[in-house]
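Re: duplicated header lines in exported structure tokens

Our pipeline writes sequence and tokens for each protein into one text file. With two proteins the header for the second block appears twice in some exports. Here is an export where it did not happen, for reference. First protein block:
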Amino acid sequence: MAEKRIISLLPAATEIVCALGLEDQLVGRSHECDFPDTVKRLPVCSAARVAPGASSAGLHSQVRSLLDEALSIYTIDKEVIRDLRPDVVITQTQCEVCAVSLEDVTAELQGLVDKPVEIISLEAGCLPGILADIRNVAAALGVQARAEVLVEELEERLGIIRHKLKFIGQKPRVACIEWLSPLMAAGNWTPEMITIAGGQPLLAADGDHSPVITAGQLAEADPEVIVIMPCGFSVDRTLSEIGLLLELPGWQELSAVRQNRVYIADGNHYFNRPGPRIVDSAEILAEIINPRQFVFGYEGEGWVRFDMQS
């Protein structure tokens, strides 16, 4: 198998490449690729046009302004890419906010490298789509057999959760929050993961984009479990803006709040990356929703309980 020079412009793609045993073929990464830790040594090939330290509302406003002006949220470092001379560049079409788009990559690469460059685009919006993307990347890189082993392992882990909950009676109503201002519920693959983990997903449909919701809709749904997982935010970053939720009308009356079942998860490293660690995310939800049945060991690192009294 001939080795290829790979640039990944998406954290999930970087994780897929590494999980397929091809980290040594990665020659460049996006500014957000940080797992496994060893990829941080690679040259950075992209940057964001938004200020990363802005508030949730500020980030949303910057993103909307750029999109309204038909501008990409990300820039590509042409000189770095030219010097790296990639054979393959991996990006995505699923979300215009998440990473450099296929359209931008295609346009920027025109005449940039003096050889053919294959562009692979991830497009998963649901759990089966993530597994399909893993197979598609592997096929493009000539390691289909490795993908089958990896996908089988991931499906087996999901199967363990399903089997253990096969005869469970009570399935709590679960709301996953993907953004704080404006308030957004987590869509795409998250509703299916909630179902696998033994909950009833609220406010978003499986495979659909994450919807903006109102405090009234949240109150009407009255979740028994709330998992807060803002896109791109660590647990600490979310905690710094948790006041946005505490100030919502009706927040204190929600069943999840009254029963002390509000949790904060690391959206950046788990729930927002459509790669192999999406199964870790399902295990995190299983720990949170059904703590008597599951202890995978993510608490404290992947998620924490938010103490309403603190």
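Second protein block, exported in the same file:
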Amino acid sequence: ADLNLRASVDADAARPKWQKLFPVGTYHRPDFPEEGITFDAAFFDAMMANWVKAGSHELPLDYFHRGDSDQSPVANDDKVASGWFSDFEVRPDGFYGLTKWTDRARQHILADELCRLSPSFSIDGLDRKTGEHHGPTLYGAALLNDPFLSDLPRVTAGATNADTQSTGSPERAKMDKKKIC
């Protein structure tokens, strides 16, 4: 019976989890415009629309922003994915990605070795098909410990994810009170 319980917990732990990628607010950094970047519903909606327009393909998570193949020299081990985003949601408090971690990344998270996400994005990305700039574009994210957006919550990789569970639309973003209790 214990073996069946453990298999059930392991299977649940491997299920995709919703992770917060961007909080709502204005942020400043030397490489941002002087007025900063405001992450709000309009920014998130444009980012979502550009992802859908590009084909809604899974987006990669890497380790420490080392997965960009355009950077060289980068060792193959540094390009290994830590997970994949398969869906996104705009919520009142920010932008979320449905994350499926690799076994290796999940072990790093559960061992408390890596705990934060750092999104890879452009405020005015280039449409690869048309060559035109089309606004906020998400490329993926990195798993690390020291993100620029330091007020994001810790990532989740365990069997439960009550604080970020969702079912895929604004209506589905309600927490299940039975699971919370």
